[in-house]
Write a structure and sequence with these properties.
Elements: H1 2-8, H2 21-75, E1 95-98, E2 116-119, H3 141-154, H4 165-183, H5 187-199, H6 201-204, H7 208-224, H8 228-248, H9 253-267, H10 272-292, H11 297-311, H12 315-324, H13 333-346, H14 352-364, H15 368-379
Antiparallel strand pairs: 1-2
Main location: cytoplasm
InterPro entries: RMD1-3_a_helical_rpt, TPR-like_helical_dom_sf
Biased composition (Polar residues): 95-106
């Protein structure tokens, strides 16, 4: 006990007292306590800063969305009814399952090699140069998406930076009207429509009517672009949008229609077996779309194109398909003719190209007088497509 007491008391050494081990421990504990208190205070400050950043991110997203909506209202020249207007050509919907080896189908109806999907009637001349968006009020799509993605990372799972559902539904109708109008417009309109839908994807990604229009816009961009890699990218992205949509809305005719079209567009950049498989996918989803929407002339036009091309497969192509698949696709010129006539029955003068194909079917069946009649009827319709 005396030894321990001696070690705990200061010892005189002439110049002053030397701190004992007990004093050193007290100082150390005091410093540790100070550090702990500092850490606690720092943690509180970090939490307050984090909450401030979350609120700031919500405000930024709200301001960007408000700015985009104001921009859309400024650029809107007039109100359009919420309908899907028909044009005299099939536009970007004219994607079909076809046989092609790179050579165009001749007037003699000669067979074509291989399988592919194509767009035979484009409503505009394709240009390689992609036009940039103009005006100070237009916001870059990539910037908006990056800002929104970063802001979502800061927001807890139980909080949402989006505006209330009532506000979203209120703006959805106007957005769909404008998207439909731009889709039926010229090349610049289609580009603007694609950008418009991309800018609003975060807000309306859970809406069926929005998603199939977004996929349709990807198909439009596929047609406007000549670079092979960009075309494939647009088609794949649009198809992926609809793959998710069909898991929730399998009863949507539009989702099936544009999934078929985009599947064909993707297959143009794939191998021959994948093109063949895409033909089956195309037919399957067009049939489903017709079952869901039997009064849509566009669907019968697409099916007619598919039948016409399958009917003109040559011996070599049929043998190739038979070697790869147990049940090769079958269709006759008569099948194609019935589908094209169904288009005229539902909507007379729906498509200039549709009447041309009726004439081609009658020609193949040996009815020359009917073929001439339908070619004259086709010439009465206005049209500015390459075909």
């Amino acid at each position: 006990a005396q030894a321990v007491s001696g070690t705990l008391l200061p010892v005189d050494s002439g110049d002053g007292a030397v701190p004992s081990p007990l004093l050193r421990q007290d100082q150390l504990l005091e410093r540790l306590d100070f550090v702990v208190r500092s850490i606690v205070e720092l943690r509180k400050e970090v939490e307050e800063l984090r909450n401030s950043l979350q609120h700031l991110a919500v405000e930024i997203v709200g301001e960007v969305r408000t700015h985009l909506e104001e921009t859309q209202q400024v650029t809107r020249r007039r109100k359009f009814p919420f309908t899907r207007d028909r044009s005299d050509s099939t536009g970007s919907s004219s994607i079909y399952f076809t046989a092609s080896s790179g050579n165009a189908n001749t007037d003699d109806g000669e067979s074509e090699g291989g399988y592919t999907t194509a767009n035979a009637e484009s409503d505009y001349d394709r240009e390689s140069e992609r036009e940039s968006e103009e005006g100070d009020d237009e916001v870059s799509c990539d910037t908006v998406r990056t800002m929104r993605r970063d802001s979502l990372d800061l927001v807890p799972e139980d909080e949402s930076p989006l505006v209330p559902d009532s506000s979203l539904e209120e703006g959805l109708g106007q957005l769909l009207e404008q998207a439909d109008r731009l889709h039926h417009g010229d090349e610049q309109d289609k580009r603007e429509g694609f950008q418009l839908l991309l800018n609003n994807k975060l807000a309306y990604a859970g809406q069926q009517e929005f998603l199939w229009r977004l996929a349709r816009a990807h198909s439009d961009m596929w047609e406007l672009t000549e670079d092979a890699d960009e075309r494939r990218s647009y088609a794949i992205e649009g198809k992926e949008e609809l793959e998710l949509a069909l898991q929730k809305w399998d009863q949507s005719a539009e989702c099936h229609q544009w999934f078929a079209i985009l599947s064909g567009q993707v297959s143009e950049h794939e191998s021959i077996p994948k093109r063949i498989q895409a033909g089956y996918v195309f037919k399957e989803h067009i049939d489903k779309a017709i079952a869901l929407k039997p009064q849509d002339p566009q669907l019968y036009y697409l099916l007619g194109r598919w039948c016409y091309q399958v009917a003109h497969l040559g011996w070599l192509e049929k043998r190739t398909v038979s070697a790869l698949f147990e049940a090769p696709p079958t269709a006759t010129v008569q099948d194609a003719l019935q589908n094209f006539l169904r288009v005229e029955e539902l909507s007379p003068g729906f498509s200039k190209a549709g009447r041309v194909y009726i004439a081609k079917c009658y020609r193949d069946l040996g009815n020359t007088s009917a073929a001439v009649l339908w070619m004259n009827l086709a010439s009465e319709l206005l049209g500015n497509t390459k075909e």
